[in-house]
Every structure is written in structure tokens, then in C-alpha cells.
Amino acid sequence: MKRKIILMILTFSVQFFAQVILTVDFETADQNYTLLNGGIFSTEDYFTRSYNGDASASHGSFSGVQGTYYLAGRDIHGQTGLYSTGKLNIDDINVSGADTVSVAFSIAARAASEYESMSSNFGSDYIYGRYSFDGTVWTKFAQFTGNSSSNEGYISEDTDLDSTGDGTVLDETMKQFIYPIPVTGDTLMLRFAIYNSSSQEVFALDNIIISGYVPVSLTAPQNLMTVSVTSSQAGLEWDAVTGAAVYHIFRSVDPYGTFSEIGTSATNSYTDTDVSAGNKYFYYVTAGN
Ligand SMILES: [Ca+2]
Ligand SMILES: [Ca+2]
Ligand SMILES: [Ca+2]
Questions:
Q1: Cα(116) to centroid of ligand 3, in Å?
Q2: CA of 23 to the centre of ligand 1 (A)
Q3: How much distance in Å is there from the Cα of 24 to the middle of ligand 1?
Q4: pLDDT tens string for the chain (289 positions)?
Q5: Taking the CB of residue 98, how many other CB atoms lie within 10 A of it?
Q6: Bridge partners of 89?
Q7: 280 Cα to the center of ligand 3, angstroms
Q8: Which ligand is nearest to the CA of 126?
Q9: Are strands 260-265 and 246-252 parallel, antiparallel or unpaired?
Q10: CB proximity list for 184: less than 8 A, separation 6 or greater
């Protein structure tokens, strides 16, 4: 009986690691952010870091809060000037090396009868996010507003950014939204603008997470070898690769032919049980995550 197994090893694979670049969760005051037009003007009139049970800022309890603190706004429309908007600024976010960035955050809005879309000049209610890499060109990436220019009981995501809400309805439970941002520079700036025009309307924002997707090359698996061979199976092993979460095993009967993936393994070994005596098999293994 003739058994012959010949092995080969292939190359590098490029994978993308998501890594958190910056978090603004409001658990610490003024950490990584600044507020414009912030303050507590009365218990029903504020734009401030707050928490459930805050006696100085009346908003009831929001559920799904990350940690204890969040940013809350009520009746933000003129404490520091006619129709002034509350702004949350996050500057100097170093995204160098990332191909793509995502911005995730949680948002809630208490039900009220006076939410209007941004097409209502005086009663409009909104929260939107913009980004810039150079500080001059700003691109809106997220928006929440009323669904019509007349009073409604809620605001929702404005998925097409046309100033009328049309998507997920906000309520008192924090909901997470995630937006991709194409990287065109090394330093990212974010702005959130919040405006609500009556004392009944309350917004809350929490847990802003900026993540980067960074290309990382995994090294090729080395020293692929057979550790056991019978007439019906071949046991393979190779050196573990740092950062690999899965290995893909490919096989062909012709070294110049088409290799097919015959299986995956979470560890640096694999047993091919689909072999028969008298054949040559060629293998390669790639690392992934
Ligand atoms: Ca928080
Ligand atoms: Ca309103
Ligand atoms: Ca819309």
C-alpha cells in the first residue's frame, strides 16, 4: 500500500481588527468632550451631564444607561441666545492607521406631544451628528427629528437626512446606533447638535464609541506537517499564529490545480478523514480572525 502526502504552505492573509479609539461615556465630567451652550438654567431647562434621579435636572429615568451618567437636554432653545443650540464637541480623535471609522452611540428621548420635524422653523426638535477632518468641511452622518412639521408624540431617526424623521422611533430606553465614517485624514472631529423647543421635550445621549478598523497582517502558518497517517485519514499540525482565531485548511490532488477548503480549525491541528490510499494530497493552511 502506497501512501504519500505532500504538504505546502501559503502566504499571508490581511485581516481587519476593530479597535476602540475613544469613548465618551460621561462617567467622568468633561473627559474627552466640551459643551457649548451647556448649563442648568432651571430643573426644566438644561443641557448638562446628568443621571437618573438628578434633582437639579428633571427628566425621569432612562433605561439602558451605560454606567450612571449621560448627557441630557431639556428645552434647549435660547438660554444663551435666541434659538441657541446645545453642542457637544469631541476633538483631536487620532484615527491614523485606520481604514474606516465607526461612531456608535446610545440615544433616548422622552415621549412628549410637541416634537416637530426640522421643517418647522420655531418648534423643531433635533439631534444630529457631524464630522470633519480639517475643521472647515463638515459632513452630517446621523440625525433624529420629528416626523412632521406639526406636533407629534415622538422623534425618530432621519435615515435619509432630509429633515423629517422616518426610522427607528426613540423612547425612554437607550437605543444604540452605529454609523461608518470614511477616513480622509488623521485627526477626526465630531459635533453633536441638540435642540428642543419646549419644556416637555427631553433628549439623552450616552456611550459614544469611536472605533477604527485597522488592517493587520497575520503571519502565514509555518511548519505544516503530518503527525499521523493511516489509509483513511491524515493528521496535520502547524505552528500557532499569534492573533489567529481560525485556520482554513485547503487541499488539492494537483499542486498546480484548484485547491478547495476542506475544513476549518480553531486550533493548530486538523484531521482530514476523507483520504484514500494510493493518492497524493497537497495542503495549505491560512490563518484568520
Ligand atoms: Ca454613561
Ligand atoms: Ca417642539
Ligand atoms: Ca427622512
A1: 13
A2: 10
A3: 8
A4: 445 555 554 444 555 667 899 999 999 999 999 999 999 989 999 999 999 999 999 999 999 999 999 999 998 886 666 568 899 999 999 999 888 899 999 999 998 888 999 988 778 899 999 999 989 999 999 999 999 888 888 999 999 999 999 999 999 999 999 999 999 999 999 999 999 888 889 999 999 999 998 777 778 888 888 888 888 899 999 999 887 889 999 999 998 999 999 999 999 999 999 998 888 899 999 888 7
A5: 23
A6: 34, 191
A7: 61
A8: 2
A9: antiparallel
A10: 133
Q: Which ligand is nearest to the CA of 67?
A: 1
Dist CA 112 CA 12 (whole Å): 56
The pTM is what? 0.73
Kind of pairing between the strands at 4-7 and 280-288: parallel
- Give me ligand 1 centre to Cα 35, in Å: 16
Residue type, 239: D
Residue whose C-alpha cell is 435660547? 78
| Residues shown for the chain | 289
Q: Ligand 1 centroid to 77 CA: how many Å? A: 24
Q: Strand, helix or coil at 269?
A: strand
**Ligand number, closest to the Cα atom of 108:** 1
Cell of 241: 499564529
Domains and CATH numbers, the chain: 4-15+219-288 (2.60.40.10), 33-215 (2.60.120.260)
DSSP 8-state symbol, 62: P
